[in-house]
Design goal:
Length: about 90
């Protein structure tokens, strides 16, 4: 139950959503093929691992657990941003 609560809290965090959206939009601007996805994955992992330590001030096992679960949360947020952008391109 604790992991589900962490995922929900991370998905609803506005600063995390903003950081992941910025990383996604920057990955779209890369000219070299494949480099955008590599940069996006690196950014998602860095955001997931540094966010609990730097922003939330957590330490110990809960910070490492939050970081590991943060990768999943960031992937879900990235999928939502990509889906919304695709809908926007299709209909507007």
């Amino acid at each position: 139950m604790l992991l589900i609560a962490i995922v929900v809290a991370q998905i609803l965090d506005p600063l995390r959503i903003l950081l992941v959206a910025i990383a996604y939009f920057l990955s779209l601007r890369v000219r070299r093929p494949g480099a955008g996805w590599l940069g996006l994955v690196a950014a998602l992992v860095v955001i997931a691992m540094l966010y609990p330590f730097a922003v939330l001030g957590q330490s110990g096992d809960i910070a490492w657990t939050s970081g590991a679960v943060g990768v999943i949360s960031n992937a879900l947020i990235t999928g939502a941003v990509a889906g919304l952008l695709r809908l926007q391109r299709r209909f507007f």
